[in-house]
Amino acid sequence: MRLVRGADVLVESFPPGVAEKLSLRFEDLRQCNPRLVVCSISAFGDGPIGAGMPGFDALVQAVSGLMSFTGEAGSAPVRLAPSVLDLTTGMWGAIGIMAALVRRAQGGAGEHVRPSLIDSAFAMMSHQVLGYIATGELPRKLGTSAPSAMPYRVYEAADGSFMLATASDAQFVRLCAVLGVEALAQDPRFSTMAARLAARDTLDGLLSHIFRQQPVSIWLQRLAQAGIASGPVNDIRQSLDLPVVAERELLVAPERAGWKGGMAQLRLPIDLGGTGVVSPPPVLGQHTEEVLREAGFDDETIARLSRRNATNQTT
């Protein structure tokens, strides 16, 4: 509570019941510091139902329906490999905290920001959820395809894969010219986006046969010359070698951040200069004395707590 009295923001993700047991609920903290912004992160919220539901990123992906339309048609449900719900919930929390601080600066009091993984899942599925509400049709598994554009997916070339993205009828006409099948652009089955979506499987079969005739490099060159968006399907090693990654300075060398050795770090998307990477992650207990001193503890108490902390680490 000594730390809370001088704090602007407190972030917690206690399991259900722990904050109450420790007298660290929002109501308790607000009595100590009425201007405190508290961010409580959970899987399913803190209501009577959600508070009793433990959850992790993959579990919420499954329960929310996100897995149900991810993957190839006919395949088992697929988890999105990045922990997208953990990451986006953290972002919603940061946005909520910043908004609360602005309102507080304008004369408001402290607030309780309560992002949850289930909320993030439905926000990310907004197109699919609203589409289902409007039409009653469940979203299909489309693999790498887009639900509202065609052709817009990964295709196999003679020596690998590449992504093709056409989003208009004009682009489809240019694509047909590149492939030497101009008649397809006039075919009533494919002449409009709506028609191509309805005949997705038929058109995919025709294009897949053509794309297998040449290597990826040839297709990328021809498509680029025609102003059609396309690109290779890279692994992480290949993507890190892309010139645009160096141009964007996505990796920050440890020397630039003032570190003594170590490995490069990814900068934040909002930190173009990489200035936000100022120190390496602390080792366990590195800042204990500093934090205790800031909270007003005397040197004798700090030494006693530090010895106890060291003993706990050893055991």
What does this structure look like?
There is one protein chain. With 315 residues, the chain is mainly α. Among the domains are: 2-135, Crotonobetainyl-coa:carnitine coa-transferase, domain 1 (Rossmann fold, 3-Layer(aba) Sandwich); 152-233, 2-Layer Sandwich (formyl-coa transferase, domain 3). The protein is 44% helix and 9% strand. The protein has helices at residues 2-5, 18-21, 26-32, 57-64, 84-105, 117-124, 126-135, 169-179, 182-186, 193-198, 200-211, 216-225, 236-240, 243-247, 288-294, 299-314; strands at residues 9-12, 37-40, 112-113, 152-156, 161-165, 229-232, 251-252, 265-266. Strands 1-2-3 form a three-stranded parallel sheet, covered by helices on one side. Strands 4-5-6 form a three-stranded antiparallel sheet, with helices on one face. A two-stranded antiparallel sheet has the order 7-8. A hairpin with a 4-residue loop joins strand 4 and strand 5 (161-165). Helix 15 (288-294) runs antiparallel to helix 16. It is elongated, with a radius of gyration of 27 Å. The two termini are 28 Å apart.
Question: Which key features would you list for this structure?
Answer:
single chain, 315 residues, mainly alpha, Rossmann fold, formyl-coa transferase, domain 3, three-stranded parallel beta sheet, three-stranded antiparallel beta sheet, 16 helices, 8 strands
